[in-house]
Amino acid sequence: MTRQRPLLLLTIAACGLIALFFGPVAARQGSPADTRPPGTNYKAPAWTFNKITDGVYHAVGTGSLVVMSNATIIEGDRDVLVVDSQVSPAGAWALREELKAITPKPIRWVVNSHYHFDHAHGNQIYGPEVEIIGHEFARQQILAGKSQDSPAREFYVGGVPAQITELETRLAAVTNDKTRTTIQSQLDIQRNHLASTNAVKPTPPTMTLTETLTLHRGGREIRILFLGRGHTAGDVVVYLPKERIVATGDLMVNGTSYMGDAFIMEWVDTIAAIKKLDIGTVLPGHGAAFTDLAKLDHWQAYLRDFWTQAQKFHKAGTPWEEAAKQVDLRGNAVNFPAIRTVGITPNHGMRRAYEMLDGRVK
């Protein structure tokens, strides 16, 4: 017994050291913040980090992983704020991992510009050390399941299983090696997309605002502003007054924005409020950053044109589905080249206009 006691004490001490060093690692690996989510078997990089100015980047997807929305990266003195968490935990995870090549500073703040699935469904990868900031309306919508159950999500994501089946059929039939490689790559991307969206657990903001929230991170002032309803009832912009930069979410995109949850003429007013800020660069929720501020005028003109026509169709008793096919927005094509034909797709914007005109939306 006497000779075995030192050995026993040594064994206990060794076990304690193992628990000390490996116990916390095992706990961390099992936490949402460190577990690699489904749908991340992709060919890097998933992101291009376009430098706007020192410590500010506009992150745009490369296409190797479906991320859908852009992200804005803002460095403070000790940490990083990210605007929008993309369509899935996979997209958010890829951004967080690839961002390490840009800065060693940890992400401590995530802003959801609004509640839509493609901007907020990556929230779940962030642990309790990260504050997720959004408008109170965005929190309410996510808690109510509206980010997961919406016509927009069904339109943009619902067809993925069918796309996978089609690609599998094409892959089985193809004989050309180059074409086979291309189809296989497309199939891998869509399989990742399905796995990642199936893994979503909608996670609401942990910190909310109704008007204004300002963060001071060293010499960086970051203003999070609600300027009015527009794309949704709870859109916020992230404004850097010193740098004259604004990240707009989908209030402004480089093209035409989805209108299925919009407050159409209030949106015109909200863009007017953005124009009153001292800005030189706009970082949109989709598409490339831009400095041509006339794009804000063009979007206001598009909204006014759409609303005018929607009112006429509604007054004439035209069903909204037909109105969506007949609305002619080609007068805006000089500023929005993607407009080539009569009609609007998806048609959710016209349905929303009729809901407003019928008084069903307040």
Spell out the key features of this protein:
7-stranded mixed beta sheet, single chain, 362 residues, alpha/beta, globular, disordered N terminus, 5-stranded mixed beta sheet
Helix percentage: 25-40%
Detail the poorly predicted runs.
1-31
The backbone outline, from C-alpha atoms, is globular
Instruction: Describe the main β-sheet briefly.
Output: 7 strands, mixed
Strand content: 15-25%
Lateral arrangement of strands in the main beta sheet: 1-2-3-4-5-6-7
Structural class of the helix and strand makeup?
alpha/beta
Distance between the termini: 82 Å
Determine the number of helices (DSSP H or I, runs of at least 4 residues). 11
Order of helices and strands: HEEEEHEHEHHHHEEEEEHEHHH
Gyration radius from CA atoms, angstroms: 24 Å
Round the mean pLDDT to the nearest integer and report it: 92
Secondary structure: number of strands = 12
Topology, pairings included?
Blueprint: H1 4-29, E1 47-53, E2 56-61, E3 71-75, E4 80-83, H2 89-99, E5 107-111, H3 117-120, E6 131-135, H4 136-143, H5 151-157, H6 160-173, H7 177-198, E7 207-209, E8 212-217, E9 220-225, E10 237-240, E11 245-249, H8 264-276, E12 281-284, H9 294-315, H10 320-326, H11 348-357
Parallel strand pairs: 4-5, 5-6, 6-7, 11-12
Antiparallel strand pairs: 1-2, 2-3, 3-4, 8-9, 9-10, 10-11
Structure description:
With 362 residues, the chain is of the alpha/beta class. It has a domain at 299-362. Helices cover 40% and strands 17% of the residues. It is built from eleven helices and twelve strands. It has helices at 4-29, 89-99, 117-120, 136-143, 151-157, 160-173, 177-198, 264-276, 294-315, 320-326, 348-357, and strands at 47-53, 56-61, 71-75, 80-83, 107-111, 131-135, 207-209, 212-217, 220-225, 237-240, 245-249, 281-284. The strands form two sheets. Strands 1-2-3-4-5-6-7 form a seven-stranded mixed beta sheet. Strand 10 and strand 11 (245-249) form a beta hairpin. Helix 9 crosses helix 11 (348-357). It is globular, with a radius of gyration of 24 Å. 38% of the residues are buried.
